[in-house]
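Sat 14:20. Reprocessing the chain from the morning session after the first attempt stalled halfway. Input below, unchanged.
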Amino acid sequence: MISVEGLKVEFNATPLFEDVTYVINKKDRIALVGKNGAGKSTMLKILAGLQQPTSGVVALPKDTTIGYLPQVMVLADKNTVMQEAEKAFEHIFDMQKELERMNQELAERTDYESEDYHKLIDRFTHENERFLMMGGTNFHAEIERTLVGLGFKREDFDRPTSEFSGGWRMRIELAKLLLRQPDVLLLDEPTNHLDIESIQWLETFLSTRANAVVLVSHDRAFINNVTTRTIEISCGHIYDYKVSYDQYVILRKERREQQLRAYENQQKQIQDTEDFIERFRYKATKAVQVQSRIKQLEKIERIEVDEEDNSALRLKFPPASRSGSYPVICEDVQKKYGNHVVFHDVNLTINRGDKVAFVGKNGEGKSTLVKCIMNEIDFDGKLLIGHNVQIGYFAQNQAQMLEGELTVFDTIDRVAVGDIRNKIRDILGAFMFGGEASDKKVKVLSGGERSRLAMIKLLLQPVNLLILDEPTNHLDMRSKDVLKEAIREFEGTVILVSHDRDFLDGLATKVYEFGSGLVKEHLGGIYEFLQRKKLEDLNELQKSIPSGGSATSTIADSQGVVSDNKLSYEAQKELNKKIKKMEKQVADCEKAIEELESAIAIVETKMGTVEGASDMSLYEQHQKLKMQLDRTVEEWEQSSIELDEIKTNG
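Finished this time. Tokens:
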């Protein structure tokens, strides 16, 4: 689909990468990886046609469509969410207008026997078939599915986009991109503004419904679940692995070990040659051999070893005094804005040494509760901060509180104490402020760079309660590893608001789930929570007491009255049967959808040939298959909704 040949990009005469050649095929799922500054975002811009390389060619077939999601974009605020999402189907609206115009012309003309009239009928028939084939009658259902999948509620559809934060407006742009179904999707950090559920939905979409995908992401779990091929940019070259990210890491280690052995052998050979030249340089009898060795040395193609920072940088929080046993206690805490209740009846106790995760869809109150704990906003109920609690707080707005006139180095130098002062350059390098970047003034840094700097500053201050709100959004994988290890060894208490499953894995030992105005506690790590979440609604049945009954009437009496526990068991058996039946129905629909999509793809391939383009029976077959697919998708949606309702309400 896209052929990249001999690509070279230079900045100030310094090559970013050169002689890069590879092909992106249909249905490829490619992770573009490399250290920060290696050129990943630049590569995406070149593939998108937004930046020209210094030399080389990016070739693609004439009608290939490309969708590009940058990390940052300028967003319009003049429409509702639905109106903005509908822009993905502007080509359908144009076709609809043209069909209406032709239909009107057919109705008004009376030259029924003329050649022009028959040509108009043929053109109308052909365009109408194309219109139906492109989903002209059911695109609203597709828009709703996509917006809901990305976390929007149906009541959000008619709200102006200006009412939403930048992160939510980025989701609208992502929705438009997915709805257009381009031949190649280029995604630069698409998960930065998504919650866990939306990330899982996007994973499924990209794995099953997208065409070719090239993505840059620092979310390990996401790229492992989506991609099957890994292209690494290193030392100005690329290495193409036909494997997922985890397997790439193993193969890369093996390749680097081979490189090191070859490099060491070559260095020995060079050293031996140089020693020979030096030893016999002034001996006339050896002049021919010396010249031969000099030429041999000049011809050697020097082996480069991939850049890899193996320094075992470990950050340890400075020691802080011990806090009380219960750093945070919430009793019946409620927060509302006017009539909108964000959450209510929040009762939780965080013990000293706990490492807890706040998870849930965006807008359910995770950051709001953090602000309540920080006493930044008013709330109802009782919230106690324990004895001698020293809080270290990281939120996105912390970055705005840095002093603009200081350099990056000076900002950290002012808070570093003891031995850590000798490691400031190493720490800055680990968080992508290596080399000259450490001498930049804070006021010229991007939002992401400021966030990273605020994170480093926090890591060097003595605290016993850490509250981190989306700390990994602007960190690469190495920086995340450094931060994760520091938190793991931190002896105090930690509250993490994050959507990064890989980062939370092994850190959080308790999960608080925010949703529908409630905060539920789940013991265990993030993956245990995600697995349990699929089953937990069944447990609600056991907690319920039948209407008319009371807690004391649930014990069987001496006459053998059946207890409510027994009834609950029977009811659960019945419910399980119903769920299994609905799950089978959903699975059957999914299988049918897969088969129909395969059949449609085969017909479309035939239609793309010279013979198939004029075969009207193929168009009829295609239209029938599309209609059948639409019906099956509707049936699948209905079955899925019913299944969710049964699981939720029993």
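The CA atoms of residues 373 and 482 lie 27 Å apart.
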